[in-house]
Amino acid sequence: MTDSALLDKAKVRQSFAAAADGYDAVAGLQRRVGETLLAKFPCVGQSRPLLDIGCGTGFLTRHLVSRVPAAVALDIAVPMLQAAQRNCAGLPVAYVCADAERLPFRDGSIGGIYSNLAVQWCGDLSALLGDCRRVLCADGCLVLSTFGPCTLAELKAAWSQVDDFVHVNEFYSIEQIGRFLAAAGWSRFELETELITQSYPSVMALMLELKGIGAHNVSTYRNPRPTSRTSLQSMIAHYEAAMAGGGIVASYEIIYLRAMR
């Protein structure tokens, strides 16, 4: 998020808790990005546990623990951790329910940190990056993916034709993240961005997928009242009109990061 004041943390916890049971059925983008993240920045040569921040149902955790002796799965929503525990049954994984912005670990106790499309739900990314540096061992690295500001640009544009409320979450740019890393004391880091476009049979199919992965609008500037049927239909009409007669597409800007101590 672009401002901690814009984030309703209770809403974040509630949204992902509610999405836990059906998450895996609609999380194709998350799996695709997670696989790309591991391919770009594989975890090798670590004897200390790896931490998966925002583990969700444990997709990335399973991959990590296959490469290292042990892993720690952290999530803010208990139902997500329970799903991760089922999906990682029998594997050497510790499960921690905690806010990623308040990591409950000793200084230098973690061998490496991975996070896949999770830190965008943190209100103070600068503080999180600093805390990650604190808990990492001397040769540890931070590897993560997050959404950039071009994410769901088509949906934002369609809603902007309906009213002035914030309907789509805002995300940090690659330049902002670079500044946060430097301010948090990271002197060696690399950032790159990728724009992914996905097709949907309808605008409602897109909306249902976002709901299914828990990606609700958690801005405190969202409409405090339920969206009316008229407003929703108007947004859909504007979205479809912008597609110029083609299918429904949605853009996702993915930012990949590796930072080393």
TrEMBL record:
GO annotation (BP), single: methylation
Gene Ontology MF, one: malonyl-CoA methyltransferase activity
One Pfam family matching this protein: Methyltransf_11
Functional note: Converts the free carboxyl group of a malonyl-thioester to its methyl ester by transfer of a methyl group from S-adenosyl-L-methionine (SAM). It allows to synthesize pimeloyl-ACP via the fatty acid synthetic pathway.
E.C. number: 2.1.1.197
Listed pathway(s): Cofactor biosynthesis; biotin biosynthesis
The UniProt record lists the keyword Mitochondrion: no
Name of the featured protein: Malonyl-[acyl-carrier protein] O-methyltransferase
Family: Belongs to the methyltransferase superfamily.
Residue ranges of domain Methyltransferase type in the record: 51-143
Gene3D superfamilies the UniProt entry points to: Vaccinia Virus protein VP39
Organism: Methylomonas aurea
CDD domains: AdoMet_MTases
UniProt-listed SUPFAM superfamilies: S-adenosyl-L-methionine-dependent methyltransferases (SSF53335)
Keywords, alphabetical: Biotin biosynthesis, Methyltransferase, S-adenosyl-L-methionine, Transferase
Reactions catalysed according to its record: malonyl-[ACP] + S-adenosyl-L-methionine = malonyl-[ACP] methyl ester + S-adenosyl-L-homocysteine
